[in-house]
Amino acid sequence: MTNLKIFQKTPTTIKSTELVDIINEFRKLENGKAELKHYDFYKKIKKEAETLESLGLSNDGNISVDEYVDIKGETRPCYSLNRDGMLQMLNSESTLVRFKTIEYINQLEQSNSQPIIKTSKFDNVEQAKVEMELLGVTSNILKLNDSSKLKIAHKIYKNNDVSTTYLPEYTTSKGTLLSATELLKRHNIEISTQAFNKLLINNGVVEEKERPSKSKGVKKFKSIENLYYGENEINTHSSSQETQPLLYEDKFEELLKLIGLS
Q: What pLDDT sits at residue 111?
């Protein structure tokens, strides 16, 4: 069983991210039952809340807008549901899943006779530690630069109400970072950015990777593998905040020679 916590307020509430994990644990008991993705569960809850509103019915706080922090340290939308809200959203599940989930919630309530409220500074620090460890794993995979890691660290600290006093406000890169498009323009290189990126990939400077995409299934993105020539930085102008490869201006001439353009 997944080790989940229900944070008891008045009344008991649970985030949709936690409830969907509980539901999926019991879906496994039914052979061939597909896993419920939080993205789909979120849409289902949103539709339920909007339908109630259109009918002029108040949900009395049964379903509330909330947020959670994902593995990348990014804040994502979710819902917070009290007991009535949970039961309402379980109506679309099978008899077995409904029974087992309600039974599990009842057991949690009985074992937690004292309210457990996530206000302890110690709990916040411990949660921040866990998220920082996950950030380390993610940054190693994506080879994020220090600036990007620092941005995510600030977000993790603030989301957990932990002081950022000991975090620096900025980091210094090894050189001036610019996009390939800008550098090609400055050096009057008559080649498209797409063709240039292909040369970088062929010479092992850049690698094309894939990530899950809700709209396309799989989305490709580029990551600098040879960090001598540049850094991978989070694109804050992108809604998904994915990484973008940036190149060192003072290493660009050397890079051109490497890929045969100089």
A: 64
How far, rounded to the nearest angstrom, does the alpha carbon of residue 106 sit from its chain's CA centroid? 30
| Count of beta carbons in the 10 Å neighbourhood of residue 17 | 20
Give the chain's length: 262
Residues of the chain falling short of pLDDT 50: 1-11, 114-119, 239
What φ, ψ does residue 79 adopt, rounded to 5°? -125, 150
Cross-strand bridge partners of residue 219: 211
DSSP string, 165-230: TTS-S----SS-EE-HHHHHHHTT--S-HHHHHHHHHHTTSEEEEEEEETTTEEEEEEEES-TTSE
Indicate if the alpha-carbon torsion angle 249, 254, 255, 261 is positive or negative.
positive
- Whether the full predicted model's pTM is greater than 0.70, yes or no, is no
Please give the C-alpha separations between residue 189 and each of 61, 194, 195, 256, 257, in angstroms, as whole numbers. Answer: 60, 13, 11, 10, 13
Is 243 in a helix, a strand, or coil? strand
Q: What is the pLDDT of residue 251?
A: 94
10 Å CB burial of residue 260 (0-12, 13-18, 19+) is: exposed
Buried b (16+ CB within 10 A) or exposed e, 123-161: ebeebbeebbebbeebbeebbbbbbbbbbbbebbbebbe
Task: Please report, for the chain, the start and end positions of each structural domain, with discontinuous segments joined by +.
Answer: 13-114, 118-172, 174-262
